[in-house]
């Protein structure tokens, strides 16, 4: 599940990124309207959390452009300190699906995200498949050959990206960005997460799905591929 947050307050942004990451979401972010618009139209997201007051273009204009110019139907939750009825009506008129007043509890934000996603998806479940590996993006349940697999939030985020891009190669830089955005830790921590993912997804099963492609990255594919199984 991929969420884009467009928010220029560093403290609020950091809190949302940490909290939603712990909830298992893959979260990208932007701190101004133009950067947020670029990400929204060039990448796929399941939901956008959008601040109203932004440098560049504000949240209302960004929302209008997505709805009118880009014909983008991704659900949008608008954040603002403005709490008058006119402000809320303007937000909905621009195309927002929900409106959350600052300050807010992170648990309420999560509840609204879940509610908006349920409304937008209806009864259709979003499930990724690669071979006998199955990932239900709504329940966050991962199974292989009918056997439930228990993954850490970091491994789930890596697996979702690999399954979405399968059978293409995903670079190490992109995998690091998924986990830590632009602030990766020192040392090869990614290697540890990939090892852990292999132990859960591949080791108990006869067919290998995770493949290292030297000097390029990692790919998830059913059947044999060129690469190194390490």
* Overall number of domains: 2
- DSSP strand tally: 12
What is Rg? Answer: 19 Å
- The CATH class of the largest domain, by name, is Alpha Beta
SSE order, one letter for each helix or strand: EHEHEHEHEHEEEEHEHHEE
Cα separation of the termini: 27 Å
**CATH architecture identity of the largest domain:** 3-Layer(aba) Sandwich
**CATH fold type of the largest domain:** Rossmann fold
The helix/strand class is alpha/beta
- The number of helices is 8
Describe it:
- The protein has 230 residues and is α/β, with parallel strands linked by helices.
- Helices cover 41% and strands 22% of the residues.
- The protein is built from eight helices and twelve strands.
- The protein has helices spanning 10-22, 33-42, 59-69, 85-94, 106-121, 153-165, 172-180, 189-201; strands at 2-6, 26-30, 47-51, 76-80, 98-101, 127-130, 133-136, 141-144, 147-149, 169-171, 210-213, 217-220.
- The strands form three sheets. A five-stranded parallel β-sheet has the order 2-1-3-4-5, with helices on both faces. A four-stranded antiparallel β-sheet has the order 6-7-8-9, with helices on one face.
- A hairpin with a 2-residue loop joins strand 6 and strand 7.
- The longest helix has 16 residues, at 106-121.
- The protein is elongated and about 60 Å long.
């Amino acid at each position: 599940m991929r969420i884009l947050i467009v928010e220029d307050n560093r403290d609020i942004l950091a809190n949302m990124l940490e909290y939603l990451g712990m909830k298992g979401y893959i979260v990208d972010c932007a701190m101004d309207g133009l950067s947020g618009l670029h990400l929204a139209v060039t990448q796929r997201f399941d939901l956008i959390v959008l601040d109203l007051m932004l440098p560049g273009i504000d949240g209302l204009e960004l929302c209008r452009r997505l709805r009118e110019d880009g014909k983008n139907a991704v659900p949008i939750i608008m954040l603002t300190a403005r709490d008058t009825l006119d402000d809320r009506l303007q937000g909905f008129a621009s195309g927002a699906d929900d409106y959350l007043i600052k300050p807010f509890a992170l648990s309420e934000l999560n509840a609204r995200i879940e509610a908006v996603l349920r409304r937008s998806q209806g009864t259709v479940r979003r499930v990724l498949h690669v071979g006998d590996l199955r990932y239900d993006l709504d329940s966050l349940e991962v199974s292989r050959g009918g056997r439930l697999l228990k993954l850490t939030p970091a491994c789930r985020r890596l697996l979702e990206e690999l399954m979405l891009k399968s059978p293409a190669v995903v670079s190490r830089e992109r995998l690091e960005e998924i986990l830590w955005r632009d602030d990766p830790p020192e040392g090869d921590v990614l290697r540890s997460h990939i090892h852990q993912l292999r132990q859960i997804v591949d080791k108990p099963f006869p067919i290998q799905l995770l493949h290292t492609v030297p000097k390029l990255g990692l790919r998830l594919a059913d059947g044999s591929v060129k690469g190194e199984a390490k």
